[in-house]
Design goal:
Layout (H helix, E strand, L loop, with lengths): L2 H5 L16 H19 L6 H12 L1 H16 L9 H11 L15 H6 L8 H4 L3 H18 L19 H7 L18 H5 L18 E3 L5 E7 L16 H5 L4 H7 L3 E7 L6 E3 L4 E9 L21 H4 L5 E8 L6 E8 L6 E3 L6 E2 L4 E5 L4 E7 L4 E4 L16 E7 L2
Antiparallel strand pairs: 1-13, 2-3, 3-11, 4-10, 5-6, 5-9, 6-7, 7-11, 8-10, 12-13
Length: about 425
């Protein structure tokens, strides 16, 4: 950390998707208040087993302990208010979050509280390698699964009400969500939702998102309710995804065990888009066809590209990088139209995502618009891979400057020439 960086901490950050507020001052207050509540709770209940196991890992591994201690110190030396000064204090906050349900906020929504807590240590010099460590990420997965378990239970419905400013059914929240589009019943307790996760993965009412040209095999529809991020052609089998330009690396994205699958898409094209905090979080088939592969990939949760540095858009600019490292689900569809060949959907978890839930299985035939799976909770991005020789004309073409939201099942691209 340079002296100039320490003297001038970043105060505003571009946050694609609105998962965290852009203003650092609000996040600093949030972390301080969270730490206070965590300390007050710490004396009343034992730590959650998953958090205690994480603390044990950090205590028993000298390299992890060193890197995290240094990352915390570097963030504090750079002028950031974390709410904690040691690993033990951090574990107290993480444990508090295991029974935390995010409230609505119109001005400063914090959908990913653990990301807010780790926001600066993860992009300090000692944090980059730390959050790529497999053992640490394996334990973080247990922690996030523990939190997801709470969010899937009835006690997570604290803010599923109409009371402002925290209620997710308040008029303020409804302006962002449009609850009338979704399956819910205002006359039932919690509007019929059994948990926070049930609300987060809410379904559209029939007809709310019709499939565009369902019988036209040359029209590809959007698999997610998302905003275009990037399009690239001539994708390499293996590339240096960690450098500034973050080129896509097929073998790393699809995993080395799927080498032949990766080779199928070598030289092809990729489309990437991101989901916002208020978006629908289920995935749908972009074409009609047969599922030939469907698998999950364990990966990182809070790793960002050090090539982007500590700039205001650094974590957003890691979206290409995380396609090769983050926890994700891969679903490959053999299109009914043989001219399209296979298309691969890669659904990537970001930050506080604890699981990518696959519903479509190999051998299953899906029609364009059928549901494939969903993100259990948290920020997310997705990619669509085309084989070489399949030429697309996208509805929204790059460069993507203030691109519009593409609704799920709406036209994404038309195939103008095929293999």
């Amino acid at each position: 950390m340079t002296k100039d960086a320490a003297a001038s901490p970043v105060t505003e950050r571009q946050r694609l998707g609105g998962w965290l507020p852009s203003g650092e001052a609000h996040l600093a207050r949030y972390r301080a208040e969270l730490a206070k509540k965590a300390r007050e709770r710490a004396g009343t209940a034992p730590r959650t087993r998953a958090v205690e196991d994480l603390a044990t890992l950090l205590d028993s591994d000298p390299v992890l302990r060193m890197d995290l201690t240094r990352a915390i110190g570097q963030a504090r030396d750079a002028g950031y208010v974390l709410g904690y000064a040691s690993i033990d204090e951090l574990m107290t906050i993480v444990d508090y979050l295991m029974t935390y349900a995010p409230p609505f906020s119109e001005s400063a929504l914090i959908h990913c509280p653990l990301n807010a807590v780790l926001d600066w240590p993860m992009c300090m010099p000692s944090g980059y390698a730390l959050f790529r460590d497999p053992a640490l990420n394996a334990q973080l997965k247990h922690v996030l699964n523990c939190w997801s378990g709470f969010l899937s239970g009835p006690h997570s419905r604290t803010h599923l009400n109409t009371a402002p400013p925290d209620g997710w059914f308040s008029p303020q929240a409804d302006r962002h969500i449009g609850l009338a589009q979704f399956v819910c019943d205002p006359d039932k307790p919690y509007w019929g939702f059994t948990s926070w996760n049930d609300f987060f993965t809410r379904r559209f009412r029939a007809g709310a998102r019709p499939v565009e040209e369902p019988d036209n095999p040359k029209l590809i529809v959007s698999a997610c309710e998302s905003t275009p991020y990037n399009v690239e052609h001539g994708i390499e089998l293996r590339d240096t995804f960690w450098i500034k330009s973050q080129p896509y690396s097929l073998q790393d994205m699809l995993t080395p065990r799927q080498h032949e699958l990766a080779r199928r898409f070598e030289g092809g094209s990729i489309y990437q888009a991101y989901l916002s905090a208020f978006n629908y979080h289920r995935w749908h088939a972009p074409v009609s066809g047969t599922i030939v592969r469907a698998y999950g990939v364990d990966g990182s949760y809070y790793s960002s590209a050090d090539s982007e540095g500590e700039d205001p858009s650094g974590l957003n600019d890691s979206q290409g990088y995380i396609t090769a490292l983050a926890a994700r689900a891969v679903i490959v569809i053999e299109a009914d139209d043989p001219a399209l060949g296979q298309l691969a959907c890669v659904f990537v978890g970001m930050a506080d995502v604890s699981s990518c839930m696959i519903e479509a299985l190999p051998g299953q035939h899906v029609r364009k618009g059928d549901e494939l799976g969903f993100f259990q909770y948290g920020g997310s991005t997705w990619c669509l891979l085309f084989e070489p020789g399949v030429t697309q004309r996208f509805v929204v073409e790059p460069p993507f400057e203030n691109p519009p939201l593409l609704k799920v099942n709406a036209a994404l691209a038309s195939v103008t020439t095929a293999r």
